[in-house]
Design goal:
CATH topology of one domain: AhpD-like
Distance between the termini: 37 Å
CATH class of one domain: Mainly Alpha
Helix content: 55-70%
Largest sheet: none
CATH superfamily of one domain: AhpD-like
Number of strands: 0
Shape: elongated
Length: 196
């Protein structure tokens, strides 16, 4: 149960009821970051707009690498909602979620290539308090991903730190999105989006 109660659809207002309906259609149920965030329409509106713009701006890094580092940050920070939702997203686009079991051993696991290992170490360094990123890490990532790739990677890691810390502080926990029923409910919408 979140520390701040979710706003039910009947109290959300007409525009937000539509947003709830769209989210339920896409993901199988209304994500709690949306229904809890509805307690402050201005912050929620800004957050949703930001997420939409970021999603459309991610064009440099491979999708799998983006999802992998976001998932790593979620696990390091212990955001069960982010882990749950991230697993669903990876399954929907056909990524191998089985290798996530080896994520804590990414530095030595054959499940990850060298670029993934470097990006995961960078995610760990950025998520540490204080941040422990080195010049060498950035230089090596720039050689592999280019400048735009490093900027995109850095922004994604920072954004997931915000999401995970926000959800954890508000007591927003997993909703079962990674279960087969939530994935099945979301799959037709994701396939339609991929086809369009």
């Amino acid at each position: 149960m979140p520390r701040i109660p979710a706003v039910p659809a009947r109290e959300a207002g007409p525009i937000w009821r539509l947003a709830y309906r769209m989210a339920r259609s896409r993901f199988g149920e209304v994500p709690q970051p949306l229904s809890v965030g509805r307690n402050h329409k201005g912050v929620l509106r800004a957050s949703m707009l930001h997420e939409l713009i970021v999603e459309r701006s991610l064009t440099v890094l491979p999708h799998g690498l983006r999802d992998l580092v976001v998932y790593r940050v979620a696990t390091v920070l212990g955001c069960s909602w982010c882990v749950d939702f991230g697993t669903m997203k990876m399954r929907l686009v056909g990524l191998d979620t089985g290798r996530l079991a080896e994520l804590d051993d990414y530095a030595t696991s054959d499940a990850f290539d060298e670029t993934e290992r470097l990006a995961l170490a960078y995610a760990d360094a950025m998520t540490a308090t204080p941040v422990t990123v080195t010049d060498e890490q950035v230089a090596e990532l720039q050689r592999r991903l280019g400048r735009a790739g490093v900027v995109e990677l850095t922004y994604l890691i920072a954004l997931e730190n915000l999401r995970a810390r926000n959800n954890s502080a508000l007591g927003i926990v997993d909703q079962g999105f990674s279960s087969s029923c939530a994935v099945a409910a979301a799959r037709p919408r994701a396939q339609a989006s991929a086809a369009g």
